[in-house]
Design brief:
- The chain is of the alpha/beta class.
- The chain has 2 domains: 267 residues, Zn peptidases (Aminopeptidase); 153 residues, Glucose Oxidase, domain 1.
- It contains 15 helices and 16 strands.
- The strands form 3 sheets. Strands 3-2-9-5-6-7-8-4 form an 8-stranded mixed β-sheet, with helices on both faces. A 5-stranded mixed β-sheet has the order 1-10-12-11-13, sandwiched between helices.
- InterPro entries: CPQ, Peptidase_M28.
- It holds the Pfam family Peptidase_M28.
Amino acid sequence: MLMFRSLLTAVAASALLAGVAHAQDVKTAEALRDKALNDRLAWDITEDLTTNIGPRLVGSPGMERAKDWGVAKFKALGFTNIKVDQFAKPSWTRGEESAELVAPYPMKLSIVGLGRTIPTLAEGIEAEVALFSTYAEMVAAPASAIKGKIVVITQPMVRAQDGAGYGIAGISRRAGPVEAAKRGAVALLIRSVSTSSSTVPHTGVTTNGADVVTIPAAALGVPEAEQLERLAKKGPLRIKLKLASTLDAGDVAWNISADIKGSEKPDEVIVIGGHLDSWDVGTGAFDDAAGIAITTAAAKLIGELPKHPKRTIRVVMWGSEESGGSSDAFLAANKSNLEKLVLAGESDTGADRIYSLQLPKGSEGHPAMKAAIQTLSPLKIYFDKNPAAHGGADIGGIEGAGVPVVNLNQDASRYFDYHHTADDTLDKVDPIQLAQNVAAWTSFIYLVADSDIDFRALGAAAPAQARH
């Protein structure tokens, strides 16, 4: 009887200790959250990268400087296991660009070549315009309406908190040049994939490659696209377009990573980060210096604790998101240890406030995730019951290979006003909203890192979920 009572006492004590440990984790997460709200590191990183490095297009001197900057930043902040993984990535360099409405009257047009577009001949292209209000309208048109003409697509983008309008409007940019080429067009101009009314045009990658049949393509500022739409209703239009660019098939890019080493299970790794590259037309503050800053600052704050959490936190600065390649390279570099990647998350929708949390399937009932939902609530972040998916372009490869992902969803209401433009600059970043991002990432990642949660097992055991 005495032995049984002793056993009960031991079990009760163990349960109490477990409860205290969990409560301590919550207290630590809350303290990290509150500290992050008043911490300047994310702002300083964003300012440093956009000011001292500037635009960071793959293959440019700016990207080379950014690689060295990333290594130096990790060292200065006390990260360990710093790695630079090089991978092959053909680079594209923009040259001189111009466009002009020739008829019914002369007018210069604000354009920017789409990323990786092929150039025109040196003398440019002048042709009659075939204007369509949507991509679908262009695809449905007979080739006779398009052959020999410069196609103009004026499809607008819808503003939405979750950025849902981007995928719909973006097809003109991604697939438009190839589809217009199939129908005999000589060039393509699209209304910028943008939620603003600015004359500043938006670039962004289009379909390209040695085996791709395409045509020169550029984006127009929104008012110019609307002006062409009005003019086309009154009579024929002619445009002259010049685009210059070069391609280096033998270039490289880099994924840079560094760790806050786990104290008990250092081989179990949580991957977070943003992408280091940017387009050449702005300084890439929203896209994606802020994502680099948010995740680096979050990991640094956790690393300042007297004792690191159990698991390792790995921050990655992916080196070629805008034109692709870093996801496949990261997957290839981690194929032998995918089972040790506990969770992955990417910050790549600017710097405005996080409004919702999506967790890996079946994990919301785990104590650590209950604590996370509770800790994020004062930041005005709600739990979205739809399981996390499509966690980011750079983690798409490892997500497809089975690594669980988390979505800390940012308000994208104004992100696509500045995305891929010369206006993507530091002044667009709100320090208060930036700090809210850091607070969310810091507290959430700490709770995962100091727990034993197994997202894969929970997902496998969970019943099929209907979308809410």
